[in-house]
Amino acid sequence: MHIMLSFLLIGMAFFILDQRHLMISSLFACGLLCVFLKDASHQALFYSRLNQADEFRVMHINAASAERQYEEVLDLIKINNPDIIAIQECTPDWFYFFNKTIENYPYSHQIELPMSFGSILYSKYILHPIDTIYINQIPNLVSEIALRENQKLTIFNTYLHTPQIKNDSLGVKNNLALFSRAINAAPESVILHIGDFNLTYWSGSILDYRLETRLQNSRKGIDLSKMYVPYDHIFYSEQLECTNFQDLELDNGQHVGILGDYYFKYAVMEQDSIRSKLIKF
Fold it and tell me: How far apart, in whole angstroms, are the C-alpha atoms of residue 271 and residue 106?
């Protein structure tokens, strides 16, 4: 993203210097990067504005990023009122805090570790733990959540280590392949894959993973003014529609998580079908 902006600024500089060929080359490179990044992000120009009664909200929090700002994180949860909360890098003190203060979330899937990398899923709806995928001894929780009748969601709560070796694309792809196999083994499941991937959404490994699983990207882009490169994402099945996505920050500007709103497409289609039949009647 910042490379694209650099090509744009260089192109404008060549325009001022009346270097026509260099200007065209720079702007052409900027345009190619624009197309590439747009293809890697959320496809629609705008999020759906439909206010569906069946919408559900998902929040992801990285406890380590929040350091010890317990009350601020709790305020974020209360203000945004998500239906599902996915937490990663949860230390024992955060486990104690969340389990003591989180209310209105009767269902959970938790794995606590002595140091960091604990993982939690909280849900307002019935939650059934399915599996735990361990990668480098870090638990990645997999659960099925029954939102409403005939609306079941399989959610992956993920944390992937930053590659120990620079450009270790094989190791990254092998890790993502574990999720690909789990997702493709149940092709009828509606998937929500949320977490800290420690990869940009335009990286080759993520693009290949999305191609294999046919998951969509919730994020439309990044805020260049903050010079922040996102490594946390929410990918979702094509049976869902994303209506809102945003980054979550503390009062000091520290990025601590993400938030997304979704609904089941077929539920809307069924409602439209019922309405059309009533109108005809």
Answer: 29
- What is the pTM for the complete model shown? 0.79
pLDDT tens-place string over residues 138-180: 999 999 999 987 899 999 999 998 766 555 667 888 999 999 9
Q: How far apart are alpha carbons 118 and 111 in whole angstroms?
A: 6
CA-wise closest residue to 242 among 213, 225, 223, 217: 217
Q: Residues of 66-75 as b/e, b for ≥16 C-beta within 10 angstroms?
A: beebbebbee
Amino acid at 87: I
Residues with Cβ within 8 Å of 15's Cβ and at least 6 positions away in sequence, in order, are 23
Q: Please report the pLDDT score of residue 24 as a whole number.
A: 64
Residue linked to tokens 């002595």: 114
Please write down the HEC assignment for all residues of 43-64.
Answer: CCCCCCCCCCCCCEEEEEEECC
Number of Cβ within 10 Å of residue 110's Cβ equals 17
Strands across the sheet containing 118-123: 107-111, 118-123, 84-90, 56-62, 255-264, 240-249
Angle formed by the axes of helices 92-101 and 70-80, nearest 10°: 40
Helix (H) / strand (E) containing 90: strand 84-90
| CA dist., res. 255 & res. 67, Å (int) | 11
Q: What is the Cα–Cα distance from 86 to 119, expressed in whole angstroms?
A: 8
Tens digits of residue pLDDT in 35-64: 544 455 455 545 555 555 679 999 999 999
User: What residues have CB less than 8 Å from 134, skipping those under 6 apart?
Assistant: 140
